[in-house]
């Protein structure tokens, strides 16, 4: 069943957008997954599991383990990065903050640093290609993710790496992974260090109901939060009082059954309360979506007008991890597109 109209999708495709919550290994193309699974002689039953289809949150994490088994070498990491950037650019995403968990794979001579450098290479490859094939450029920055399975030392290693690579496009740190694993006190010291090193921070929060952790995360005052699905009254009050922008991934939350339906999604109360919200894809490959589709779903589910969709898209620029002058440039780019579209319409 489609949760959006063709007209809305067409409009949302024309809308310039920013994607601020996209996991690299969750954003693989179908064809690439199939090709890599065959090349690595992955058991066909596992390939079937990778093929799209609704899956619960816990099944998602089994799926990521499988995807990680077919994206093990540097060239593949560079390739899937380049393809992901190309696909977001083709969806008229003008600014992309890609996030990924640096991985050590000694059998492939891979360290967290060489993994991250392979990702940065893929970002460069794609940005060069973009302007040629699409006639417009895409600006890409990288967040390094701490996985909830990692210990304190590993978290510090990722933060140190991110700090060293800031000049190459790393702008922040993400905390993600299976929300039922680990505890906040393991990673908080490294996140404090990240802040000291001038890195921005976004946290997957309240994906499952965990009031103690969610309260601690809100008190930490990250620069952004992701999901925020499971809040009780007290947490909701605290959340609103912080004004921290929230990355909302509609399809991801519905497909993983974190939220029961689009119309019941917390986008609505957050948006109506004037709380800063950013529409995102989370894992466009795993959930077979695009940012245009997420905007079109929101238009339908929450009766948003085209003006409101424009405002939503432009407001997201304020919440990027770009420097102020870069935000200004992006605002100018969006404004000139809006003016062109308005002119075309009147022709
Ligand atoms: C669906 N909701 C989610 N909740 C929490 N973490 C998620 C996620 N979707 C993806 N990830 C995180 O992103 C990793 C895959 O990309 P990278 O290997 O880092 O590029 C997953 O292993 C998980 O840690
Ligand atoms: Zn996520």
Can you walk through the features of this model?
The chain has helices spanning 6-14, 30-39, 44-50, 57-70, 74-90, 112-134, 152-164, 184-196, 211-220, 233-242, 250-255, 267-272, 291-301, 306-315, 324-346; strands at residues 17-23, 93-100, 139-147, 170-176, 200-205, 224-227, 246-248, 277-279. The longest helix is centred in the middle third of the chain and has 23 residues, at 112-134. The protein has 347 residues and is α/β, with parallel strands linked by helices. The protein has an 8-stranded parallel β-sheet, with helices on both faces. Strand 4, helix 8 and strand 5 (200-205) form a beta-alpha-beta unit. The structure holds N6-methyladenosine-5'-monophosphate and zinc ion (ZN). N6-methyladenosine-5'-monophosphate binds at residues 23-26, 60, 64, 100-101, 145, 147, 176-177, 204, 207, 252, 256, 282-283. The site of zinc ion has 6 residues, from strand 1.
Question: What descriptive keywords fit this protein?
Answer:
single chain, 347 residues, alpha/beta, 15 helices, 52% helix, binds N6-methyladenosine-5'-monophosphate, binds zinc ion
Topology summary:
Blueprint (H helix, E strand, L loop, with lengths): L5 H9 L2 E7 L6 H10 L4 H7 L6 H14 L3 H17 L2 E8 L11 H23 L4 E9 L4 H13 L5 E7 L7 H13 L3 E6 L5 H10 L3 E4 L5 H10 L3 E3 L1 H6 L11 H6 L4 E3 L11 H11 L4 H10 L8 H23 L1
Parallel strand pairs: 1-2, 2-3, 3-4, 4-5, 5-6, 6-7, 7-8
The protein binds N6-methyladenosine-5'-monophosphate (6MZ) and zinc ion.
């Amino acid at each position: 069943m489609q949760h959006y109209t063709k007209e809305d999708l067409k409009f949302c495709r024309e809308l310039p957008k920013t994607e601020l919550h996209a996991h690299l290994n969750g954003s693989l193309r179908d064809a690439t997954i199939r090709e890599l699974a065959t090349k690595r002689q992955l058991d066909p039953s596992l390939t079937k599991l990778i093929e799209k289809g609704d899956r619960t949150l816990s099944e998602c994490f089994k799926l990521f383990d499988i995807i990680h088994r077919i994206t093990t070498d540097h060239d593949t990491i560079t390739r899937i990065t380049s393809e992901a950037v190309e696909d977001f650019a083709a969806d008229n995403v003008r600014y992309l903050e890609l996030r990924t968990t640096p991985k050590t794979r000694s059998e492939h001579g891979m360290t967290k640093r060489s993994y991250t450098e392979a990702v940065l290479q893929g970002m460069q490859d794609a940005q060069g290609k973009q302007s040629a094939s699409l006639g417009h450029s895409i600006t890409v920055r990288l967040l390094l993710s701490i996985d909830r399975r990692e210990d304190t030392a590993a978290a510090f290693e990722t933060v140190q790496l991110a700090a060293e690579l800031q000049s190459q496009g790393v702008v922040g740190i993400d905390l993600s992974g299976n929300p039922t694993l680990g505890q906040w006190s393991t990673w908080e010291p490294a996140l404090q260090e990240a802040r000291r090193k001038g890195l921005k921070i976004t946290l997957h929060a309240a994906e499952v109901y965990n009031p103690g952790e969610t309260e601690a995360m809100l008190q930490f005052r990250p620069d952004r939060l992701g999901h925020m699905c499971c809040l009780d009254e007290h947490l909701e009050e605290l959340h609103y009082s912080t004004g921290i922008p929230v990355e909302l991934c509609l399809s991801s939350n519905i497909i993983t059954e974190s939220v029961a339906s689009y119309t019941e999604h917390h986008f609505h109360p957050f948006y109506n309360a004037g709380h800063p919200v950013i529409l995102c894809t989370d894992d466009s490959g795993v959930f077979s979506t695009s940012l245009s589709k997420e905007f079109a779903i929101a238009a339908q589910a929450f009766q948003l007008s085209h003006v409101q969709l424009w405002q939503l898209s432009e407001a997201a620029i304020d919440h990027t991890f770009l420097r102020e002058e870069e935000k200004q440039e992006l605002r100018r780019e969006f404004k000139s597109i809006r003016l062109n579209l308005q002119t075309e319409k009147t022709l």
